[in-house]
Amino acid sequence: MVQFDLFGEVEQKLEERAQRQAVEAAKPKAVPHITSRRKHRVFPSDPHRHAGDIADSVIAAWFSHYGGSRMDVPLGTIAALCFFREPRIDDWLLTLQPAQLSQLLREIWGFQWMTRPDLIEVARPLHDWLEEDPDEHQLKAVQAVVHAAVHKGLLDLTARDDPSERSEADVLSPLLTGLRYKSDKKWRGEYHTPPCVTDLMAEILVHDDHGPTIREPALGSGGMFRSVAQTLRSRDLNPHDYTWFGNDIDPLATACAAVNAIVWDLGPRTVIWCADSLATEDAGLSKALTEREAVINHRNAVVEQARFERRARQMLHAFNQLLDGAAE
Questions:
Q1: Number of domains composing the chain
Q2: Which one, of 31, 108, 100, 98, lies nearest residue 66 by Cα?
Q3: What pLDDT is recorded for position 17?
């Protein structure tokens, strides 16, 4: 069985680093010793501009270290980092070697699959590349992407306990559109609605007697969902009390929206899928609901199997102890 011990490893690394720092602090030094690459976390004054700056830095790092046309690798790397809620993790991330980062990303996606398998399956285009045994050049580019994001302050936006603060900006949208070639964006007709527009639309559309369902047939990376969720929170309403239905024809955009749904904490009644809204009568909603149920049932079966194996090992251990006692 696969074990997801990401946070245990993080805590161990932080404890070891704290011990080393304590030893270093006890030694006399002629000059001040800087132990952190990042100062205390301050929330950006302009979250949307901050998200754009992060995207620019990540894009530059990716192309300067690899130069490939793949979008899923840098997108999936940043998406995984958005799941962190530990503000002290940034220094530790900068110490990891490329191969260690690859293993870390696998564990992050695995842990998220255990909690939200329905959304992580939709986000598969962002993490399938990890199963392809990325080569040395790709992994070095991934390391460059992580360093660029950390130094530019990605966790300033995303490593927040308050979902309202994490929802101040869409980090993945400018990265997704920035990685696309201009001709590709024109061919796809992919132009994400600016946050100022979606915020205004949400203020107009959301009212106290708003229905329990939010529907977005051209979801993109989820910008409209973000604005609606923030508007609900500003009116002391809980996004968890609503059902969110959203789809988009672009699999990468849909995958980003699935990640954002977790980061923005839209709640358990969130259904996101990739489909053409004009192709079928219900835009593929029935199929999406069926697949969602199947994925959740599969996760439940995996968890139940793990529990059964654990109980079996415990029983076997107790039985062996009885036999050893009888032998004595």
A1: 1
A2: 98
A3: 53
Inter-residue contact 238 to 214 (CB < 8 Å): no
* CA gap 313, 174 in Å, rounded: 49
Q: What is the pLDDT of residue 215?
A: 94
- Residue at 163 is within a domain: yes
DSSP-assigned states of every residue in 20-60: HHHHHHHS--SS-----SS-S----SSHHHHHHHHHHHHHH
Instruction: Return d(Cα 293, Cα 47) in angstroms, integer.
Output: 35
Structural domain boundaries enclosing 231: 46-285
SS3 state at 88: coil
The DSSP element (H or E) to which 271 belongs, if any, is strand 270-274
In this prediction, residue 211 carries a pLDDT of: 75
Nearest to 260 by CA among 59, 149, 145, 123: 123
Low-confidence ranges of the chain (pLDDT < 50): 1-7, 10, 14, 23, 26-37, 183, 185-187
Q: Which strand (E) or helix (H) includes residue 305?
A: helix 285-327
3 state SS of 165: helix
CA separation for the pair 221, 80 (Å, rounded): 15
With respect to residue 57, please indicate whether it lies within any of the assigned structural domains.
yes
